[in-house]
Amino acid sequence: MKRLVAILFTILFFCPRSFGIENVKKVYLNEAINAAIQNNIDLQAAQLDINIAKNYIKTANRLQNPSFDAFYFLGAAGNSEPKQLGLSQNVEIAKRKARKNLAESNLKLVEKNVSYTTFDLKMDVREAYINLVAAKSILDTLEQQKELQEELLGIAKNRVAMHKAPDIDAIQAEIALNQLITQVNTAKVNVKNALSNFNKVINDPNDVVYDSMDKIFSEANNFQEMLTPPPVLKFPEISKIMQKALDNRYDIQISKQEIDIAEKNLTVVTRQRIPDLQLVGGYAYKPGQYADNGNFNNGAYAGASLVNIPLFYNYSPEIQNAAFKLQQAELKYQSVKNKAEKDVNAAYERFLTAADNLNHFESKIISGSEELIESSKKSYEAGKTDITALIVMKQGYKSIIIGYTQALTEYYKRKKNFLREVNDENFSLTDNV
Known about the structure:
The protein is 66% helix and 11% strand.
């Protein structure tokens, strides 16, 4: 019985995945994006800024609290002056609405910043997902090459045993296999790192480990699953999409909103020169023993006064600084627009180049490589070629496949970078744009 308990403990301790203790969830790219939007801790923290900005609107729109006043005169003054109980209220003139407008403009800015953060998170998930799938694809390629090399080593040993090949053939094949083993081990570590970075970007506090689907790069619908158009499409000229690309950029929208905030802030600061009104009123009474007629006299009192008259200080430095900030915001807006056009143009050119490179790989390099390797292996097995040529050819083929994977990865990343520049994950690249 004790031995059975020990066995069960060992299984539970060393094999947590088999019992669902660690929840691994394989997702496609769109599912990974949705998971990040729903669960990302940093995004949840950023979204709280909207609630904070809404409360600032209430703060800006507040009314001044009243003051309670009581006057009770002592000594000889009490014989002639009435007792008073009343309220005083400061009334702001032309300030409250301006403050509220500024707070509402700031709310719009916060909302745009949160939208930008959300979009940026989607792009980060795309990049992390691409890196993970690419690392898996390279690992899969190397493992396939390792299997082929093991098969080649078996063939070489068999030919050596049959005295059809020198001993050096088996030695060369074994050295090549050991090199591949080290490359496979490195590739496995790269996959683990990419998986860790992928989950770091999603940043889900729940007990879920997200993983990409396997071998997406080799599937027929890989472009659809990676939310990327096939590279064989005819993409439009940059001039046809530039204006649409600039219209969607959050940094331009944010800079424009910052101008609106600076304008409203200038209004708020300028209106500090307007004096406020202070209203007072209440109840006054005088007991009969202090009144000339011997009767209890009472009544109301009211008064008004202008406060904070800009006589000694007229807020000129604050107004000048607010005007300077408005100028800064306008200059920043022009700068952002100018740089945005160049960034979009450069990103689009890199995307088109990546598409051309990928098409070249698919049409000129990949086709026929597998048949060539298989034919060369059979030629060596039949004694028509030597093993050195075959190993060199296999290494070249491995470089081609990894190069294709890297070209495909580059294509996906360049599309992601272009989307990041236009700030629109659903940006359409068609000839009728």
